[in-house]
């Protein structure tokens, strides 16, 4: 009748109260399982062809890059980075999506796209003007947000065109220096 969270909390509390002599049996089982896993993994990697090993490594790096990208986007959202400005078509769709005809959202978008394409420039003008206003809003908000990030010491989040070239060059030199120190440490 417990939820998963309650069950995990109960088990964690029981583990904390368990004497070291009783924990030893579980730790031995974990160690044995880990050694068996490492042997199976080594056997699996040994039977891979070089091309398969390279493909596996490439897939792993792609997954890590995707995870890093997701974390970076989430961090920007948490830090309150303003949303990008909408264009005229986006504004048109947001205002007319509910009333548009179509069974699925994709069908509604296709129908709205056809309507947008057939509109005259004078009919599009109000939406394009709203898009220009949204662009001004975005520029003001992003400037304010970037100033806030500078105050917080997070210059790494600022658009690269806005950072001073001198500062970017100094950071690059520092990374190169750190990298050379790491190489020397490895050689030693």
Features:
transcription regulation, DNA binding, 188 residues, mainly alpha, single chain
Description:
- This protein is mainly alpha-helical.
- The chain is 79% helix and 0% strand.
- It contains 7 helices and no strands.
- The longest helix is centred in the C-terminal third of the chain and has 31 residues, at 121-151.
- The protein starts with a helix and ends with a helix.
- InterPro entries: HMG_box_dom, HMG_box_dom_sf, HMGB.
- It is found in: Mitochondrion matrix, Mitochondrion nucleoid.
- One of its GO terms (cellular component) is nucleus.
- Residues 128-155 form a coiled coil.
Largest sheet composition: none
Please work out how many helical segments DSSP would assign.
7
**What is the residue-averaged pLDDT?**
89
SS-based class = mainly alpha
* Uncertain residue segments: none
- The helicity comes to over 70%
Outline: extended
- Tell me the series of helices and strands, N- to C-terminal: HHHHHHH
Rounded to an integer in angstroms, the radius of gyration calculated over CA atoms is 28 Å
Count of strand segments: 0
Distance between the termini: 58 Å
Q: Strand content of the residues, in percent? A: under 5%
Task: Summarize the entry for a quick read.
With 188 residues, this protein is mainly alpha-helical. It contains seven helices and no strands. It is extended, with a radius of gyration of 28 Å.
């Amino acid at each position: 009748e417990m939820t998963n969270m309650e069950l995990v909390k109960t088990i964690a509390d029981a583990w904390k109260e368990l004497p070291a002599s009783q924990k030893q049996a579980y730790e031995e089982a974990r160690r044995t399982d880990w050694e068996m896993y490492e042997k199976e993994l080594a056997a699996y990697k040994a039977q891979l062809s070089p091309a398969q090993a390279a493909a596996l490594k490439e897939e792993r790096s792609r997954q890590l890059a995707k995870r890093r990208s997701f974390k970076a986007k989430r961090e920007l959202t948490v830090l309150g980075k303003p949303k990008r400005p909408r264009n005229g078509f986006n504004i048109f769709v947001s205002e007319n999506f509910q009333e548009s005809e179509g069974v699925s959202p994709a069908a509604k978008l296709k129908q709205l796209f056809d309507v947008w394409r057939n509109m005259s420039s004078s009919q599009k003008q109000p939406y394009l003007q709203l898009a220009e206003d949204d662009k001004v809003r975005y520029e003001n908000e992003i400037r304010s947000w970037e100033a806030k990030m500078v105050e917080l010491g997070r210059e790494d989040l600022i658009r690269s065109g806005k950072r001073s070239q001198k500062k970017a060059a100094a950071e690059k030199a520092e990374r190169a220096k750190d990298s050379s120190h790491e190489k020397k440490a490895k050689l030693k």
